[in-house]
Amino acid sequence: MATTADFKNGLCLEMNNDIFSIVDFQHVKPGKGAAFVRTKLKSLTSGKVLDKTFNAGEKVTTARVEKRPHQFLYTDDLGYHFMDTETFEQMPIQEKLIERSNLMKEGQMVDILVHAETETPLSVELPPFVELMITYTEPGIKGDTATNALKPATVETGATIMVPLFVEQDTMIKVDTRDGSYSERVK
Q1: I need a labelling partner for 127 at 20 to 30 A (CA). Which of 73, 78, 111, 174 fits?
Q2: Domains in the chain, CATH or no CATH each
Q3: What is the mean pLDDT of residues 41-52?
C-alpha cells in the first residue's frame, strides 16, 4: 500500500483488475477545498492512457513489477522471441506489448517488465537510443542544407525515419526509441 505522497513517474498501481503505470502526476492545492492529485495512468496490459484524480492522502495498492534484462532473438508467427540473459529461457511476446517494435534488431538487449506475483510479461522497454544502419535513402540535393529539411530513410529493421539531407545511405545513425526520431550520426 502507498499513498498519493509516494507517487512518482513509473510507479505501478493495481486498480480495476488491471496494472497501471504513472506517466504523469500533478499535486493540486486549490484555494478553496481539499488538495488532490491529478494523474495520467497507462495500462500495462492494453496500453490505454486514462486520467484519474485521487484525493490527497488516498491509499492505493502498488503492484510488484520487476525489470528483467532479455535479448531479442527473432520474430515468427507466435510473436517476438526473447531470451533471459541469466536463465537462458526463451519466451514469445505479442507485438502489442512492445512499443516501437520496428526499431529492434536481432541480438539487441531490452528490459521486460514482469508482474512479480504472476510472472506475466507486461511490456518491453527498448533502450533510449539504438544504433541502426541506413539501407536506403534518396541522395541529398547539393546546396539545400541551409534549412532543417528532412528526408525519409529506411533503416536495417525496415522502419522509416526522417533524417537530415546530409545523411547518406550506409551510414550508422542513432535513433531515439521514445519517439522514433533521428538523433545523430554514429562515428
Answers
A1: 78
A2: 2-62 (2.30.30.30), 65-125 (2.40.50.140), 129-185 (2.40.50.140)
A3: 88
